[in-house]
Amino acid sequence: MYTLLPLAALAGLASASCLHGTSYLPRRSTGNNTIEVAKFGYTGTTGPVLWDSLSADNVACSAGRFQSPINIADSSIATAPNPTSYTLPTGPLTFENLGSTVEVLSEASGNTSALTFDGKAYSLKQFHFHTPAEHRVSDEHYPLEMHMVHEAPSDGSLVVVALLFDLSTTAATPLVKALAAALPAIANPGTATPLGEAADMADIAKHITSTPLRAYAGSLTTPPCKEGVTFLLATEPLPLDVESYNAFKRVVKFNARFSQGALGEENLLRVFAKENEGRQRAAANETPASGAEEAPATSAPPALPEGQGEGDAATVPVGGGPGPVTEGAVSTLDGPRATPAARVRRGRWAGRE
Ligand SMILES: [Zn+2]
Asked: How many angstroms separate the CA atoms of 83 and 298, rounded?
């Protein structure tokens, strides 16, 4: 049971999520160029393994079966046609530190930024950053990921364009370099600064319209972990100069959710909860009656299942849990789960194959 916060502390826990700036979660200014900061975090009891405990609205974080981010390792994650056009924001931009990320808000009067994808028009609401990157490609991770959150005025559907960045000693992405230079102005969570017209996003637009994309139907990677979000992920990274990377890391700190399970399969946190429940039931059944002669004087720590206790600790329980459940351990719980049908399902996105 995860009753860790008083009820009064639960209000507004979804603030500053990936929905920020959309019609689902309008931006809230607190005046004097300051903005509301996130209540969720990436460490301890406000971290990703307990996001569902922070608000009843966050149930998808632990129960959803199409959660993001994922490892793009499977060819069944569909390739997607490049957007036919990408119009860059023309209006003034605002750069904000939400505590959970740094974000550029593009919604302003006269802002005509638009993505046309799959025959539908979307407008760019904001873009923000994760360090390290959240999606992996063939298991490889990257130092930085940019999420461009678009909403369709026609029906409110969301498309997140995800761009990966890799370190380079010879090249840089002008937009990231410019934002890195502005980061000291928003070093503290809750602060904002105008960017003016200076953002050079030409190579961002070129990347989106010309490099290979993968698409899948996933979720927001932050509370409330809303599903039905179409991700368009560019698998080729953009260049990131070391100085900009260090500037981002210094302010953003760490804000990557752990890799989620295969699309359509049971949420890893549910898998863990069931596994833990089974262990506790087994331990209770094995507890000898009081006065039993065989009771040992000291108890040894419980044995870990195969594959557990090392690896990348994809899901780390807190509060005296029996230990981390690694992705490797999950597959041993109830036999192989990736049936051919499940593999086909992984490639499903937004109703397309
Ligand atoms: Zn994001």
From this structure: 64
**Neighbouring C-beta atoms of residue 66, cutoff 10 Å:** 25
Q: How far is the CA of 140 from the centre of ligand 1 (A)?
A: 18
Burial status of residue 240 (CB atoms within 10 A of its CB: 0-12, 13-18, 19 or more)? buried
Between the CA of 84 and the centroid of ligand 1 the distance, in Å, is 24
pLDDT at 185 over 80: yes
How far apart, in whole angstroms, are the C-alpha atoms of residue 201 and residue 197?
11
Percentage with pLDDT > 90 across the chain: 56
Domains in the chain, ordered, with CATH?
7-44+68-252 (3.10.200.10)
Ligand 1 centroid–CA 256 distance in Å is 8
The 3-class secondary structure across 108-133, one letter per residue, is CCCCCCEEEECCEEEEEEEEEEECCC
DSSP structure string for 255-268:
--PPPP--TTSPPH
How far from the centroid of its chain's Cα atoms is residue 291's Cα? 51
The one-letter code for the residue type at 136 is R
Q: How far is CA 238 from CA 142, 146, 162, 348, in A?
A: 10, 10, 11, 26
pTM of this prediction exceeds 0.90: no
Please give the distance, rounded to the nearest whole angstrom, from the Cα atom of residue 257 to the centre of ligand 1. Answer: 9
Residue 156 scores a pLDDT above 90: yes
Residue 147's φ and ψ, nearest 5 degrees, are -110, 120
Give per-residue pLDDT as tens, 309-332: 333 333 333 333 333 333 333 333
Distance (angstroms) between ligand 1 centre and the Cα of 220 equals: 7
